[in-house]
Amino acid sequence: MPKKKMIEKMSYEEAFKELQSVVEKMESGELPLKDSLALFERGQALSGRCSELLEEALLRLRQLTRDESGELVEVDLELEDM
Predict the structure, then answer these.
(1) What's the rounded Cα separation, in Å, for the pair 50 and 65?
(2) Are residues 20 and 34 in contact, defined by beta-carbon separation less than 8 angstroms?
(3) Helices (H), 1-82
(4) Can you give the pLDDT of all 82 residues of the chain as single tens digits?
(5) Does residue 2 sit within a domain?
(6) Does a structural domain hold residue 51?
(7) Dihedral sign computed on CA atoms, order 43, 48, 49, 55
């Protein structure tokens, strides 16, 4: 059995891809309850990792703009304007 990568070391893309795989396996309905429960728990952790990485990415979104004196300053990027 291949060793699973630790979730907290996964990139967003890795975690999301594995989460998709978990969902497909669970939707098949062919797993015993014990395996389904283990997959559900891993899926919850993967989902949490994806959410954590998305939140970090949003916090890094900044833009340069000029203040009242004309100096460039960093401000939060307003996503509604995009």
Answers:
(1) 30
(2) no
(3) 12-28, 33-60
(4) 445 789 999 999 999 999 999 999 999 999 999 999 999 999 999 999 999 999 888 777 777 788 889 888 888 777 664 4
(5) no
(6) yes
(7) positive
In which residue are the tokens 């797993």 written? 31
Structural domain includes residue 1: no
For the record, the structure tokens of 28 come out as: 């098949």
CA-wise closest residue to 19 among 58, 59, 52 = 52
Are the C-beta atoms of 6 and 18 separated by less than 8 Å? no
Residue 4 lies in a domain: no
At 75, give phi and psi (nearest 5°). Answer: -135, 160
- Model pTM? 0.71
Q: What is the CATH number of the domain that holds 48?
A: 1.10.287
Token match 């890094």: residue?
Answer: 60
The two three-digit tokens of residue 61, written as one number: 């979104």
| Separation CA 23–CA 40 (nearest Å) | 8
